[in-house]
Amino acid sequence: MKSEDYIKGRGAQKKVPNRFLRHIYETRDDFLEFCHIEGEEFDSNKTQYLPIFPKTIINKVTSPDVGMQYSMNPYQGCEHGCVYCYARNTHEFWGYGAGLDFERRILIKKDAAKLLEAKLKSKSWKAETIVLSGNTDCYQPAEQQFGITRACLEVFAKYKHPVGIITKNALIRRDLDILKELAKDNLIGVNVSVTSLSEETRRILEPRTASIKKRLETIKILSENNIPVNAMLAPIIPGINSHEIMGLAEAVADHGARSFAFTVVRLNGAIGQIFTDWIKKTLPGKAEKVLNQIKECHGGTLNDSRFGIRSRGEGKIAKQIHDLMRLAQRRYFANRKFPTLNKDLYGQYKDGQFRLF
């Protein structure tokens, strides 16, 4: 049962101080009482869209635990509000907090498509798959208003350059025309995140994401149009969705996913504090059990930064998760394979048009 001070429609349930800032702002009880007496809201809980103008858009990924070399993010911060999201910590580098700020102050990179095209036209660039949403979802609600992701996909299509997408939003279906064009040349791979088959779990864990039904439908529609889909069954959180592993794998396989991947949840930096506060307000009856099981997967702590282990976990609970995933692979994905994307066409289209000679 949720506590009375639960903030509906948000993952994080409070603001968290930015570790890089000298000053911390606190909301005092006497101010809250004043707002109550005056009938005023001290916090509107509305999302703000803030334009920013970076000089580059492509990020080199150096982590050995992440299966990509390059990523790009049209938006920083994410209104989806997934309480466990590892990207929350990056919002501190922009001067904001990893809690409510992350999902209410969304930074918009309106020049993303221009920056991408400039990079693809540069003489030094060689084709490597660039993944949209390596940090924050490129199809979060802001995309419906700004259309930056679609503009970037048009650039990838123009230059016949391979691109990957990670999302948990059905809005990707809007761009089916461009995705089909890319798929004809094996230039696109989509990763759809499906964390639970329970709508109640989805609503509290990932409050502003597409429903589970819509995500499964999205996998089916993309697959029927020969757009390869990898299902991200991530993160697996002991005591919350760990019992759903076989069901999740079967569901995404039935809807056409060619492969799946997973991680064991880790709560680094400010995320440990945010998640602990969230679960005590949202699932108070099982909070301590879940937190202790997560700690058991990471050497007794919520904060695990060890390369090679941090996303896999260790110990008995982590082993059970991995054993179930291996069983799911054998049972539902034995003869399926996610394709390697095509890097050969880009050189011919680097000038924005096909070379005849």
UniProtKB/TrEMBL annotation:
Keyword entries, A-Z: Iron, Iron-sulfur, Metal-binding
UniProt cross-references to SUPFAM superfamilies, sorted A to Z: Radical SAM enzymes
PROSITE patterns assigned to the protein according to its UniProt record, in alphabetical order: RADICAL_SAM
GO MF annotation terms: catalytic activity; iron-sulfur cluster binding; metal ion binding
Residue ranges of domain Radical SAM core in the record: 64-301
Pfam families, alphabetized: Radical_SAM
InterPro entries: Elp3/MiaA/NifB-like_rSAM (IPR006638), MJ0683-like (IPR040086), rSAM (IPR007197), rSAM_sf (IPR058240)
Domain of life: Bacteria
PANTHER family associated with the record: SLR0285 PROTEIN
NCBIfam families (alphabetical): rSAM_PA0069 (NF033668)
Protein's name in the database: PA0069 family radical SAM protein
Organism: Pelagihabitans pacificus
